[in-house]
Design a protein that fits this description.
The chain is of the alpha/beta class. The chain has 3 domains: 241 residues, Rossmann fold; 222 residues, Dimethylsulfoxide Reductase, domain 2, CATH 3.40.228; 116 residues, Barwin-like endoglucanases (Beta Barrel). The chain contains 25 helices and 25 strands. Strands 5-4-16-15-14-6 form a 6-stranded mixed sheet, covered by helices on one side. Strands 21-23-22-25-20-24 form a 6-stranded mixed sheet. Strands 10-9-8-11-12 form a 5-stranded parallel sheet. The protein starts with 16 loop residues before the first strand and ends with a strand. Belongs to the prokaryotic molybdopterin-containing oxidoreductase family. GO terms for molecular function: iron-sulfur cluster binding; metal ion binding; molybdopterin cofactor binding; oxidoreductase activity. This is Molybdopterin oxidoreductase family protein. InterPro entries: Asp_de-COase-like_dom_sf (IPR009010), MoPterin_dinucl-bd_dom (IPR006657), Mopterin_OxRdtase (IPR006656), Mopterin_OxRdtase_4Fe-4S_dom (IPR006963), Prok_Mopterin_Oxidored (IPR050612), YoaE_C (IPR037920). It comes from Georhizobium profundi.
């Protein structure tokens, strides 16, 4: 299940010091780490910290091998200036200060021609550190550059959750270890959040708990399950409704809890009268027996813990599906019990005010916000994507690789190829976005700078202090932001005198917590609310304190609601009154008979780790999983090259025959670099960036395609 070394393996040798940090990558686990420090600039093995009650000494194999990444021979160490055509790969080494001079000059040139909104600082979650990730916004707000609507990751799941509970808070995820049934729904945790399995497996060993996995294919998590529910992509809402139908029909609904804690249980029951297992079976591909058995299991097992993942946020109807799955725990009353209820994220518990880090005091809310998922449309001049404003002609990119990871890849690549677009990329490696840049700046890695992290999938604030010296050349994100602020005349607004430790210390103390030095000794702060609060026993986070079966889809505040300049998005008028299945998905049709999910690979994290030998060797090559019967119909055999396509383009990759998915469903695990594919184009050629209801998002697992043998 987990390839990382046991916590007792390779214990500290006399010449090796141990440093303590936190994993910085885009994962809800935010693992507490022990790092072998071989000298001032070299690390050895990385392990999970056994003293942290959530990490519990276990981390994923790719992070355990982090020395392979931080000491990689291809790591960027010198600033580079493009001297050939874009993407040609001809570079000249220059000094870091000279590089920043050029970036500032190009930004001022763009501003003078089109106004400040022509500059777009673009970033995301290559690091989840609050200082190094988010400080770019101080520069943005100080100069009134175009804003960024962060739509690419969380929106559908967060929105669906909050529509029910009112707040991103849930039971202590460590309670999975005292559950009698753990339902892992919409997340391949063995590959992406291995600590979930740590606690679920403990419940199975110590209590005989059942582990149920709901997903679209037989992935590594599914292989650990006692009950496997493999359904068609985008049909989770139908399954949830049929489960609740059975709960009401068979007297398994907790009517006392429903009356006390929910808004309209009678209306829900009437609505579900026609949402039978037979109805859901036709939609999901599950059998009636599978649906009814699952419903009876959760209905008779009071300590059922629903662990709901980010798979919900990859589908156009994901907000509805999340809300429907979440509603099951309210019908059973599972919230009342230790080891029961539902959990997605604890993002609202930490009480960290990022106003100073992000420069929110001087943010102009009238400045346009551009949708990060629509970067291809923005850079190719789509008027709607540009909010009818000026073109983007200058960018700095930190912590993300949009040429590889953003949807509508052909548009993204065409946008970056524009001769009138200046791009600076601050990176660890020569990514495919960096290859299209005019200036490439080398960046430090997480063990080489100070930062602070919060674990949405758990309950800790964790410090990540600098543990080793960076090699000569790379600079931190904060140093780059400050260097540009000084050159652009906004050093006072950006407060370039505040180093990372001061920013962390200020934020912690403003939130009534211990400061940087004390946290360095303590390593983390446990912020889990008390049992009644996290289980909503005193009421849900609405004025009437009731769980909402009837959400106000467009009138409700949400954790990542688009700014007023954007408004509600997608076909929100089609969102249902009660939990339901809605065909907002990209439905298969005669021209596109297959549904494609682009699921995470075990050894990559988005495009990170795709540069390391260990991860590439374990993943093999880009491929697509095909059901044996679909393969037989198209005369496709194991290892054959196939073409997948839709209205956005077509790519070639190798077929893997796999019976662990429904007919008509394809799964391509990634994200592989574009150049690793046969034609130099990656899987995101096939993914769309159309707005998702009600508050936006990127539906990476929601694609109709055709397939043929190549």
């Amino acid at each position: 299940m987990n390839e990382a070394s046991p916590i007792t393996a390779g214990r500290v040798k006399s010449a090796i010091r141990i440093g303590h940090s936190a994993c910085p990558h885009d994962c809800p686990s935010t693992c507490a780490l022990e790092v072998e420090l071989l000298d001032n600039g070299t690390i050895g093995r990385v392990r999970g910290d056994p003293a942290n009650s959530y990490t519990a000494g276990v981390i994923c194999a790719k992070v355990a091998r982090y020395a392979e990444r931080i000491h990689h021979p291809d790591r960027l160490l010198k600033p580079l200036r493009r001297i050939g055509a874009k993407g040609e790969g001809r570079w000249q080494e220059i000094g870091f200060d000279d590089a920043l001079d050029i970036v500032a000059e190009k930004f001022l040139e763009a501003e003078s021609r089109y106004g400040a909104e022509a500059v777009w600082p673009y970033f995301y979650a290559g690091t989840m550190g609050l200082v190094q990730r988010d400080s770019i916004n101080r520069l943005r707000h100080a100069r009134n550059y175009s804003g960024q609507f962060d739509s690419i990751c969380t929106n559908m799941a967060w929105t669906g959750w909050v529509m029910g509970t009112g707040r991103l808070v849930g039971p202590d995820p460590r309670e999975m270890a005292v559950s009698d049934c753990v339902v892992i729904w919409g997340t391949n945790v063995v590959s992406t959040q291995v600590n979930v399995m740590t606690h679920a497996v403990r419940a199975r060993k110590e209590r005989g708990a059942k582990i149920v996995v709901v997903d679209v294919y037989d992935n590594p998590t599914m292989k650990q399950a006692d009950v496997k529910l493999i359904l068609k992509p985008g049909t989770d809402g139908a399954l949830a409704c049929a489960v609740m139908h059975v709960l009401f029909r068979e007297g398994l609904a907790d009517r006392a809890y429903l009356e006390r804690h929910t808004d309209d249980p009678a209306g829900l029951e009437r609505h579900l009268a026609t949402r039978t297992p037979e109805w859901a079976a036709a939609i999901t591909g599950l059998s009636v027996a599978e649906i009814e058995s699952f419903a009876r299991l959760v209905g008779t097992t009071k300590r059922t813990f629903f662990r709901l993942g980010y798979g919900f946020t990859r589908s156009r109807n994901g907000a509805v599906n999340m809300h429907a799955a979440l509603s099951i725990a309210a019908v059973t009353g599972a919230w009342q019990y230790e080891g029961g209820g539902a959990f997605h994220s604890n993002s609202d518990i930490f009480g960290l005010d990022k106003t100073e880090i992000m420069g929110l005091d001087f943010k102009d809310h009238g400045v346009r916000a551009l949708d990060q998922s629509q970067i291809g449309r923005v850079l190719t001049g789509d008027a709607e994507a540009l909010r009818n404003g000026p073109p983007v002609t200058a960018m700095i990119v930190q912590n993300t690789n949009p040429v590889n990871v953003a949807p509508e890849q052909r548009l993204v690549k065409a946008g970056f190829a524009r001769d009138d677009l200046f791009v600076a990329v601050h990176e660890h490696f020569m990514t495919e976005t960096a290859e299209m840049a005019d200036i490439v700046l080398p960046a430090t890695m997480f063990l080489e700078h100070d930062d602070i992290y919060r674990g949405g999938g758990q309950q800790h604030i964790l410090l990540g202090p600098k543990l080793v010296d960076a090699p000569e050349g790379p600079r931190t994100n904060l140093e780059v932001v400050y260097g540009l602020a000084e050159r652009l005349g906004v050093a006072d607004e950006v407060q370039t005198g505040l180093d990372a430790r001061t920013l962390i210390d200020n934020m912690l103390k403003k939130g009534g917590k211990i400061g940087f030095d004390a946290l360095r000794d303590e390593k983390w702060i446990d912020c889990q609310p008390d049992f009644a609060t996290s289980h909503y026993l005193d009421g849900f986070h609405w004025p009437d304190r009731k769980f909402r079966f009837k959400p106000d889809w467009t009138g409700t505040a949400a954790p990542n609601r688009p700014p007023a300049t954007v408004g509600s998005l997608g076909p929100h008028e089609r969102l249902p009154e009660f939990p339901d299945h809605v065909d907002l998905i990209e439905i298969a049709d005669d021209a596109h008979p297959f549904r494609l999910a682009t699921s995470p690979a075990r050894n990559f994290l988005n495009s990170t780790f795709a540069e390391t030998k260990g991860s590439k060797t374990r993943e093999g090559r880009p491929s697509v999983l095909v059901h044996p019967d679909d393969a037989a119909d198209l005369e496709i055999e194991e290892g054959d090259i196939v073409r997948l396509g839709n209205e956005r383009g077509a790519i070639r990759l190798h077929a893997r025959i796999d019976a662990g998915l429904k007919r008509g469903v394809l799964v391509a695990e990634g994200i592989w670099p574009n150049k690793a594919h046969l034609d130099g184009e990656g899987i995101n050629v096939l993914t769309g960036a159309d707005p998702v209801a009600p508050y936006g998002g990127a539906a990476f697992h929601d694609n109709h395609v055709w397939m043929e043998k190549a």
